[in-house]
Amino acid sequence: MDEKIYETIFKTFDKIEKMDKIEKATMIEIIRPLSKSVSVHDLSIATAILRKNGRYVQENYREKYLEVYIKYFIMRLKDINQDKNKYDNDYVDMDGLHESINIIKSQMKVEENEHRNDKFPLIYALTSLYTTYILEEPIHPVGTPFPGNLHITYEDGIFYCPVKKNNENNPKAVCKFCLAEQTKEN
């Protein structure tokens, strides 16, 4: 990703971090231009990156895993661009948002050389923030498969993730700010 897009991302994040409160509709309007900067070519590259990384996923659920990531993760940018909901007086959790932005900034700084020629970090950031703070859903959608025939679930108004606890200290994961809770042990 070129330096200009990183500069734009960080300026956008800085603008958000300076706000005391922000309505969901305003946040969408702030992040939408970043979302629109992602081309079809950029989406193709991101899909190729996911497929490349997917080769390490157990074969028996690799295609379902990739389908979920490509359909719900990458294509979530389309949702950002087309979201016309009013979200009247519906505010974002600013403490959580500030923490999330700091996590994403740190990840982007570490991965800057790895993704110098693609917008995967931007797609990852926008999708994670939109899903968590606008839609108030877990970053991985309900039904996302994990090893051991485990899935993201929704029970009694709470989203559960079977791998959250295992990834909370992973510097490349956004599990720290995902609103899903660790699946309860039986």
Looking at the chains present, what oligomeric state does this protein adopt?
single chain
**Helical fraction:** 40-55%
DSSP, total strands: 5
Q: Assign the structural class, choosing from mainly alpha, mainly beta, alpha/beta, alpha+beta, or little secondary structure.
A: mainly alpha
Topology as a string of helices (H) and strands (E): HHHHHHHEEEEHE
Give structural attributes.
globular; two-stranded antiparallel sheet; three-stranded mixed β-sheet; about 55% helix; mainly alpha; about 190 residues; 8 helices
Structural features, described:
The chain is mostly helical. It has one domain (3-141). The chain has helices spanning 3-17, 24-36, 40-54, 62-74, 76-82, 94-111, 120-134, 164-167, and strands spanning 145-146, 150-151, 153-155, 158-161, 181-182. The strands form 2 sheets. Strands 3-4-5 form a 3-stranded mixed beta sheet, with no helix packed on it. It has a two-stranded antiparallel ribbon with strand order 1-2. Helix 8 links the parallel strand 4 and strand 5. 28% of the residues are buried. The model has no long low-confidence stretch (mean pLDDT 88).
